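Researcher: I'd like a structural prediction for the single chain below. Treat it as a standalone chain; there are no partners to consider.
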Amino acid sequence: MVSIGGIGFAIILMFMQLGFLGSVGDTAVLVYERLPCHLVVRSRDYLHVFDTGTLPVDTTASLEGLEVVRDALPLDISVSRWQNPQNGSYRAIALMGIDLDRPALDLPELKTNAGVRLRSTGHVLVDDASSSDYGPVNGKAFGTQDIGVRTDVGGQEAVVVGTFRMGTGLAANGALLGSRETFTRLMPGSDPDETSLIMLRLKPGVAPEIAKQIVAKRLVQLSGPARHAVVMTLDEVSSAEKSRWYTETPIGMIFGIGVALAVVVGGVISYMILASDVTAHLGEYATLRAMGYSNQYLIRTLLSQASLLALIALPPSTLAALGLYEITSAVAGLPIRMTILWLIIVWTLSVVMCNTAGVLALRKLLQAEPANLF
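Model: Treating it as a single chain, here is the predicted structure.
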């Protein structure tokens, strides 16, 4: 039980680090998962979804003139400053602006009365997944009780007229949604003639890859910043966003290194467990060698034990990790979920880790003469 518990602890470490790493990628594409489009046009200055650079908003008219494009929808997105209405403190908050007649985000809340109230400049919806640090009335989460609350956003007064559900990310623990006019008012330095991203919806039957080539040619023909814009499919944008957070940001690298360290820790624990077992049964192993059993037989015996330890420890460790995922998600406000990929990776690494430790633990025995082991 102690051996299984030690290996199970290492397995839980791997699950948790992979879960944290997965949440980095999941939160990075929350916005893109709500875009009802096929192609995305973005500036070459694009860094991540909340630091996009800008494009001329009249680029939408130029792209709608293409025979393959049905709609070109502008989306304004950046990070502004929100004042907690309860204690007056300030926090960074994601701010999004959309054309309410042709919304670039697929949100059911836009079809309700809250969506109608957004037409007044300065009126916003707040993501009900926003952290309690932003000051909801009940101290826990934003809801109907916050309708009518007035606070400072970007140096201007904003009025909360409802909530929506999208989810927050690592760039900001809260999010606001309003019209493009509201975005211009609440985002210091913004220009109504510029937009952050352009979403392209294609006509029925048009393949995204073919449309992408046509749009790219049109962008080259335009002048100004639009000439240097980049068009990508929605899948390409999501993959690039995840890759950027995994490999180019400190937090993604930290969790990636954490996975590697969890494997090392698990290997050390497994080695100590199996080495202690070999030492405790040194006489029995020596007897087997003296009786003529081959080294291959001894290796198979110990590797079978190592594999059994891993396989017995995996189910309870997986259940424990699922429970910890739920607790951590609730406390941190980040989506942490178990995936088939995480299961395959952890189960494979666990068996390999234990077998490698078994081989190392048996090395001393294999190098010694049977007579010296009694």
